[in-house]
């Protein structure tokens, strides 16, 4: 049976390669984990910006509902509400036409 002999130099190179791989992939502050966390951070920041814009639109809509009776009534009707004494008729489209 052939024995594989490793020189001291090759063992040192193997250890260095394993250390580099460990640092890159498996360490708690690895380069790979840092990259993925930064990527998630950018994604979260974009989500925050979208939500801020949506929040501003909702604030504007709320202000309009508070100040404009016509807007308020239109929104109420969209939600299926009716004035006292009114009757609402709902028409369904027939499927075979």
What is the secondary structure topology, with strand pairs?
Elements: H1 8-26, H2 31-67, H3 69-78
Folded structure, characterized:
The chain is mostly helical and 97 residues long. The protein has a domain at 29-67. The chain is built from three helices and no strands. The protein has helices spanning 8-26, 31-67, 69-78. Helix 2 crosses helix 3. The longest helix has 37 residues, at 31-67. It is elongated, with a radius of gyration of 33 Å. The mean pLDDT is 84.
How would you summarize what this structure contains?
This protein has 97 residues and is mainly alpha-helical.
State the main characteristics:
mainly alpha; 3 helices; elongated; 97 residues; 68% helix
Shape: elongated
* Major β-sheet annotation: none
Terminal residue distance: 85 Å
Radius of gyration: 33 Å
**Helicity range:** 55-70%
Q: What series of H and E elements makes up the topology?
A: HHH
The protein's oligomeric status is: single chain
Number of E-type strands: 0
Supply the helix-strand structural class. mainly alpha
Strand content: under 5%
Q: Overall pLDDT, averaged?
A: 84
Extract low-pLDDT stretches: none
DSSP summary: helix tally = 3
